Amino acid sequence: MSVSASSAGSTGALPQPSSRSSISAAAATGKHQLKIDGYSLTTAVPRGAHIKSSNFQAAGFSWYINYFPNGCGRLLKRGRGHVSLQLVLDGAAPAAAVKAQFTVHPHPAQPHRPTGGGHRAQEPRAQARRRVVVLQVRQEGDPAGPVPGAPQGRQLHAPVRGRRPRQVPALQAVKTAPFVEVPPPDLHRHLGDLLVSGEASDVTLRAGGERFSVHRCVLAARSPVFKAELLGSMREGTSDCDIDIEDMEPRVFKALLQFMYTDALPEVDKKEEAAMTQHLLEAADRFNLQRLKVLCEDMLCGCIDTGSVVNTLVLADQHNCQGLKEKCFEFLKSTGLNAVMATDGFNHLASSCPTVLEELMSKLTLH
């Protein structure tokens, strides 16, 4: 580039100084290796669906790759055997447009030359049949629009090995090892250990002749009923207290306490699951544990049969479990009343819950 200037009225020829400058643009580059272990297993992913890789840094930006084992876009019309890769710019849109170009080594173990655009990679004769790989660049959160200025629809032919198995387990993308491994939450485990040890307990509860050493702050935080009982004005200034829990079996109360400390229920024998769940639903309603109540209601929806449907319907009505009640109605509409009318539970329903029986008959009539 040269710059010159002149002024009017100048006399004589003066030497003209010159200067030069240049502008050079360099593109940031990066390299990432994507390894697909167990390719034949990934082919069970539905056509058009993808597995997301872990994020990686390249050229100053964060990227990830969507791997479509059975193709995407226009490749879906070509049938099986097509693999698609999609390079995605992660995160919020940058202030300026990002232009991306790429080259691909489809088989690093072989002496292929890098390819990009519409070029074909050289393939050894001993390899399996060719499968089309489509690479595309786009920005996250904009499935219809690519990164501005990015090349689209690039294709290359690359060898892919493997056969489709008859039964395939569930699949997930394998993440690379992070710099910092954050452990999963374990508060429930610590509180469970505190319940088992009874350390620093300040309340003793008795159910069915069995004693349980517990912590009033935990029970008060979980149950409004226990909060009123343990932190009410009548309990102020007391360090230890004993409370009797009437009309509850020790095993049921133990399971209730475990849920209050850990938010999980203990495992029970399959034969006792329905009866235990019914007792826990009653306890949850008694101590206003709404999540436990809904959890038991959901579990009982899967335990309904001809021998238990009537008793479950009575239980649902007594504890205002509308979802469980509707499930019982649906079961009786599909099976009819003849199978349950001879049971003791039906006689109990007719005598103790006549409104529920009327509601049931009206639903059967409409059905």
Automatic annotation (TrEMBL):
<feature type="region of interest" description="Disordered">
    <location>
        <begin position="141"/>
        <end position="163"/>
    </location>
</feature>
<dbReference type="InterPro" id="IPR056423">
    <property type="entry name" value="BACK_BPM_SPOP"/>
</dbReference>
<dbReference type="InterPro" id="IPR045005">
    <property type="entry name" value="BPM1-6"/>
</dbReference>
<comment type="similarity">
    <text>Belongs to the Tdpoz family.</text>
</comment>
<protein>
    <recommendedName>
        <fullName>BTB domain-containing protein</fullName>
    </recommendedName>
</protein>
<dbReference type="InterPro" id="IPR000210">
    <property type="entry name" value="BTB/POZ_dom"/>
</dbReference>
<dbReference type="Pfam" id="PF24570">
    <property type="entry name" value="BACK_BPM_SPOP"/>
</dbReference>
<feature type="domain" description="BTB">
    <location>
        <begin position="201"/>
        <end position="269"/>
    </location>
</feature>
<dbReference type="InterPro" id="IPR002083">
    <property type="entry name" value="MATH/TRAF_dom"/>
</dbReference>
<feature type="region of interest" description="Disordered">
    <location>
        <begin position="1"/>
        <end position="26"/>
    </location>
</feature>
<dbReference type="Pfam" id="PF22486">
    <property type="entry name" value="MATH_2"/>
</dbReference>
<comment type="pathway">
    <text>Protein modification; protein ubiquitination.</text>
</comment>
<dbReference type="InterPro" id="IPR008974">
    <property type="entry name" value="TRAF-like"/>
</dbReference>
<dbReference type="Pfam" id="PF00651">
    <property type="entry name" value="BTB"/>
</dbReference>
<dbReference type="InterPro" id="IPR011333">
    <property type="entry name" value="SKP1/BTB/POZ_sf"/>
</dbReference>
